[in-house]
Amino acid sequence: MRIIIINGPNLNLLGKREPEVYGSKTFETYFAELQLRFKEITLEYFQSNIEGELIGKIQETGFSYDGIVLNAAAYTHTSVGIGDAVKGIETPVVEVHISNTHKREDFRHVSYISSGAKGVILGFGLQSYDLAIASFL
Ligand code: DQA
């Protein structure tokens, strides 16, 4: 089984960025732990701060991979293009957020991804990614 985690803008700063919201672990450290926990899965990771690169990766993997775990970060709340990409592919997408976006500012309550996603997992910290991967098993 091949699954890719696609992370959007500013998630490269995990560990440094607003640790009270996102925790103090880097994604690289967490990803290494995930690979140990899910040895039976071929797990890949891609991060970009650029909307078009995220759309490109969704299109590139969206007809051959078994699952996409997508945290589009701030683009979740703004990007019709990423939402359309999710709707246009065959691979199921699980939308993930580290924080509970519904407990935060109103603009974070809107998602352009959810209507095309298989499901949404949010608010469990980095564990949200574990839960999303487990949902494909
Ligand atoms: C986030 C929530 C978004 O609102 C925010 O812009 C992010 C991260 C999360 O994982 O909690 O960058 O997607």
Short description:
The protein is of the alpha/beta class and 137 residues long. The protein contains five helices and five strands; from the N terminus they run E-H-H-E-H-E-H-E-E-H. The chain has a single domain, classed as Dehydroquinase, class II (Rossmann fold).
The CATH homology group name: Dehydroquinase, class II
CATH fold topology? Rossmann fold
Radius of gyration: 14 Å
Structural class of the secondary structure composition? Answer: alpha/beta
In helices, the fraction of residues equals 25-40%
Order of helices and strands: EHHEHEHEEH
Query: If you average the pLDDT, what whole number results?
Result: 97
Unreliably modeled segments: none
Distance between the termini: 9 Å
Strand order of the largest sheet: 2-1-3-4-5
Number of helices: 5
Q: What CATH architecture would you give?
A: 3-Layer(aba) Sandwich
What number of structural domains do the residues give? 1
CATH class: Alpha Beta
In total, the number of strands is 5
Q: Globular, elongated, flat, extended or rod-shaped: what is the shape?
A: globular
Strand count, sense and closure of the main sheet?
5 strands, parallel
What bound compounds does this protein have?
Answer: 1,3,4-trihydroxy-5-OXO-cyclohexanecarboxylic acid
Beta-strand residue percentage: 15-25%
